[in-house]
Structures are given as structure tokens and as C-alpha cells.
Amino acid sequence: MRAMPLPHADKRLLASIHDVGPGSERQVDQLAGILEARLGGPRFAMLVVPDHWGQHPLRENTAFQTRLRAWSDSGIEMFVHGWFHKDTATHSGTAQFKAKHMTAGEGEFLGLDETTALQRMRDGKALIEDVIGRETAGFIAPAWLYGDGAHAALKALGFPMAEDHWKVWNPVTGAVLAKGPVITWASRSGARTASSLAFAALARQALPFSRTVRIAVHPGDVTKSSLLASIGTTLDRFAATHQPSKYADLQ
């Protein structure tokens, strides 16, 4: 059997688990186990939702707070991932297209004004940092969707890092820290699942030469064996050529 190449020191693999909260603990546990096994340890990030859809408040769940702190203590980076993760705004134009076709009512920060966005970001940051006992790594909007108000709030609050579908950047300086599409999967319909599997397969062929590769998994991914198989194959493919890293290593 031909030996796999060692990861290149200048190529980074960034992996993350989205939608982390009390309501997704079992799924997050499963995904964390998969990532740890494939990446050689807790070399990934978690994106924490303070109160997913208003039904799973982190503030009231001390047992999950303990788990979150333990994950953080192990070295897993923690990002603020919105507040509710639910989009309740009314959109028009380009934003309306994004809200309808790029997410299922979960682009919470796409239509928020700066004041509301700033308050939710500040509250989420304070809560998560109080739970884990250290600073959060940054802010990533639900569904990777930001409106003008969210962009302004990000800069005003001074988050060191943010991410969308195509890049990682510093909201304060505007510096782009990494470029390229994020590889992710979809479970909410057969068509979207098939599309995400096809994109992951294409990415395994097209992105090995990229300096930074990003992989994002969601709790819903554990509901389909085809998605879990694709996630495992994709992690293995890039862990062979890219060094599993922290987002903080980009700075």
C-alpha cells in the first residue's frame, strides 16, 4: 500500500461543529468523537448557540455548561454562533433570495439592525465566556449570513475573527485570513443531501492544493449514514495533506 503524504506545515485544515447547545448534546458528542478520531485530538472548533430557537437556553442548563467548559478546557475553540439561530426579519432584494435559498429560516443576523445585532453578539459573548472561563475565538453568524447591521456590530464589538461561506476575516482590520469555500453537508431534504455529497466529492478533488481547507458539520448530519461516510472520507482526505489546526493559528 502506498504511504499517504505527511500534512504540509503551511497547509491548514480547520474543522468545526455548528449549532452546539443543550438541545444538540447527543449529536455534538457523536460528531466530536468523529472529529477527534480523524484529526488526532480535539483540533476543531465549536459554534455555540446561547438559546437555539428560543427552546434550549444555555443559561439555564448547568449540566451542559459543565460539558461546554470541559470541551473548552480540552483545547476546543469556542465561537459565538448567534443567539437564537432563528431568522425573524422581513427581507427584500438579495437578502430575500439568501434567506429563502441559502437556509431554512436560520439566517438570524441577515436582517438585524446594528443595535439589535450588537446586543445579541455582546450578550452571547458574555454568556459563553462566563461559562468557559476564557475569551471566545470570534463570531460566526448562523448560516454564515450577515447583513449590514451585523457587519457594523462585528467591527464595533471588536471580535478578532469571523467567517462566511467564502472566507475567514478580522472584522476590526478587515484583513482576510483565509479564502475558499467551506465544505459542509445538508440533511433537511434528499435533494440538498445529494447536492452536498456531490460538492464534498468535488472538493476532495479540487481543493487539496488550497492553503486552507474548512470543514463544517452540523447536528443533523448524524441522521444520515451517507453524510457521516462522506464526512469521514473528507476529513481523512484533507488530514493527509493539511495540518489540523486552530482558527487562532490564522492570525
From TrEMBL:
It comes from the Bacteria. The lineage of its organism: Bacteria, Pseudomonadati, Pseudomonadota, Alphaproteobacteria, Sphingomonadales. It holds the Pfam family DUF2334. InterPro entries: DUF2334 (IPR018763), Glyco_hydro/deAcase_b/a-brl (IPR011330). This is Polysaccharide deacetylase family protein.
